[in-house]
């Protein structure tokens, strides 16, 4: 007998005794099972048979039959060779198919072939299985109240109505008297249509056990029904892959940008833009991106160590310290390298071969959806383009990976590796009582330190004049039980535009999951009626732990805030000053202003040409395992996601052709 | 003339006019440069020549010669075809090689071959170049005070002394009168030795311009010097790669674990352990890992939507909803699949083919270090092992990726994709004033919602009895200017053991970069004298935004905290209760306790068998671009890093042979 492959999408079902087929042979284990192996198909049959015999003449519905794992200590004893092999046991939850609807938990000892426990459970509702959920659509389509609710929207062909079964949470009308589920209703005009483009204005409540519709809850607005949204929005993939380099200009998957390099910032990305196939033009995203500064304050207060707070970019230069990269070691795959051109003290040019690595990688799933009815679906792989350099700053190595993905995200990832800065201990010094470092080897201490980076972004989101809006996720101000928030579940995104440079100097807030949108207030998305924008996501931004007014606090003004937003000025680039070596960081230095001075001008930053400095990094309490060489510590400082709409009209929602491909047309009302 | 390749490690230097060589030809661009291209070697020569002529008879030292980018509006006009091509300009910082040590900024117009600006800059210190840093070791080795300082430690061969040049921050002894750097001192006995294993107890201060040692600052402890740490700690790579599967037991790169699967949690990892080659045994890490629950509360307070807060695991089962995976779509590379065995309501077994995907991937750099003296270095690539499943929960897809890397990290990544839950709008409803959702297409709204997951970890760090210690990065309590913290830079890690289950119910704190260590208090690391442990890093844990006492707040007790730590009990698994469907979540339910009930017992969790529930997820304010299909939103909830020492003795620091490979022996004092 062939296995039944049709009744649950994605499942291959085996009837009892059906072990002769190739399909069964492939899934029956030949060895003695490991105590933690899932139940085999033979074991499930055996457990179900014993339970059915015990339940007779009643019929049980199996909510689950799963491995009953051995108790921890029993298994541990077996694993350590101190105890015998635990018996194989199955755990089942069953629902009686009679008026009682009793739920029971059953433990079956499979090794001994007997039921060990049969416990009735009251006032609970087991998991909804796919079989349970499957009934919702089936019974709804036949139900007169559902048919009537559809007719009210002009739908007469019930085969085009799709009902997603959902757990219901709590519904006071029935409480636990019935085993309930709710059905969310959609319309789908033809096989390739997308039901989520056509939600309907009613929900269905059903009894899962009696397979009975209990209620059809229609929402009336001013006494009226809500028409079906009829435009089609499909999700078929099409891709553009691989990159082209023309001089130092790069094209990849609809992106274009220029790759520059200098002694101080290393890689500079300019003119970052994306192609909009519907408008037939490149829409600007960023005017310029660079890592503009960093500081590494050490936390040991003993004198001489307080001077260790390297500003690796301002004091040495990220370009100067760049490594020449090697295929297979630093980079893998099909690489395009660019050289760096610097100069010596004599004024001679000096070239670092292969200073910049450009390559493309698979990035896992881009999107996926499976229709749980028939198991059909769509999925596409993501690709990422990575532009990277690695620098050596004495003992430390930093890898900077500027990354773009097909969904329009720009992300900078910094990888920290190399060697810890170490110091020696006098025999009188007790490792275990020194809180300022970790003993990594006998008589060697590695001190606490932070790595704080500043990413400079000069945005140009669909034009030069942008505004930064601060987003905080907050619960509704309306009280639980009020008419506006009867069940207390309301929450929304509180949006606060940053208006002046001092308002623009702001910190991350975990409690509200704070993010920031760089918006273009003069370009509205016609769908959601909100300005186009680009989101800053950055929750890897530790506070500067040195005291206010300490040497490093003064010198590293930039590290006092997670974000600074300033009006753009030509050549205002380096937040710790143009000259960082030996600078004191005092305010109002006549030749060497810092970001604090720029912010103190407190100029307008709303709907104008702005620049953002985004701080990120980590606090490193060294581990003994970080010596003698540190494994890479990745930090994803600023994740940029094209947010509440980088697009200017319905068609250009597809500015990222990889993300979605809609017909782009509002269809006339199709035949219902 | 061949280019000079020797004077700066990693640089190939070109003398003026030296354009005939193959090396030069390879780096001279043939086309007209893009306005943002870095300067070519020809342009650098031209700029340096003009500056030298202007400075004569004085000699300038070039701190940098770099592209002077065109002013933004000028470049924008050119880019848009509204203006002429900007002139090519160089920007240089020079230091005069005379007693004045004057610093000047020079702008050279390369298109017109003339100097446009020459500005003296006072009270600043330019970047330290590699050439500047290079002198520190050279002059220190010859300096009588340094030689004397070394002799005091028994060192007579100065070629074995290595001095890393560092920026000095601020040194009040000289302020800005001198261009300073500090040298950090190390000893290296032979070419393959690691200097950071032998730090010395003095630092050197030097004048960069006059190439003169100004001070050798020796630290005396009780009037004594500190001996050189002499043990060798190398960092040569050796790898173990690829995985073996025996039944459902997996071995990979020193890891071993069992892979189970059930209808509710999907993938279950048990007996996760790592091989310690020095102790010749597998050291336990985790007894059991699973994703035990999740909830998706929607934030629209209108009635009927308040019932949308699916507990996809407890209400449907992660195993039941699992997709059958396809090579090339869901997974790439050499895959080992495992099937899932479930059951139908009739009690028949049902198999999902290829439910679990196991594969190995390159993971970028594992570690790297380059010696800045000669450009030699070491680097190794990381690998990761990924055990994954993808589930479909009606409209949403979730990918669960359990990931292990060579440095001992376990990380769970969840990828969210699929379709938004949508609802229809009545014409009277204004999209732009509804804060509870986003219009994704005409008359279609997608509501705000959260995805909150609970990762259940049953740890077994080097044994069954573990304790969780809370880590907060805090500044020193000693005041700035006090003897204990004169420069205010002191900071450390405040460690608070969680002692009872109610203390163990705790939240993430951004201000202190809070993490948690799972330690084994009875196994001390003999190097750092602290207990072995494993760190929990989780800053992706949004607060539950529903009101206190609301329906979902009651039902999803687990989502009220970032971390719960509880004593282990057999079969206490599901934090929202064993039966989640229609549960109210009230405390003290007789048959269906939740994690809040377990915590309310307030039992001891110190140095006992414990279980951790780690909550993570995201708050989703839908974007228009999320329709009609959402690009993947990755969430790295819990990053586990083996922290202040998962090891029990000096040798077993190498429990992760991929991370480091020390000789493991304390050497006798080598010849000095």
Automatic annotation (TrEMBL), chains A, B:
Residues 126-220 form the Copper amine oxidase N3-terminal domain. Residues 34-119 form the Copper amine oxidase N2-terminal domain. Its cofactor is Cu cation; Zn(2+); Mn(2+). Topaquinone (TPQ) is generated by copper-dependent autoxidation of a specific tyrosyl residue. Residues 242-634 form the Copper amine oxidase catalytic domain. Contains 1 topaquinone per subunit. Transmembrane segments: none annotated. Pfam families: Cu_amine_oxid, Cu_amine_oxidN2, Cu_amine_oxidN3. Its EC number is 1.4.3.-. Belongs to the copper/topaquinone oxidase family. Homodimer. This is Amine oxidase.
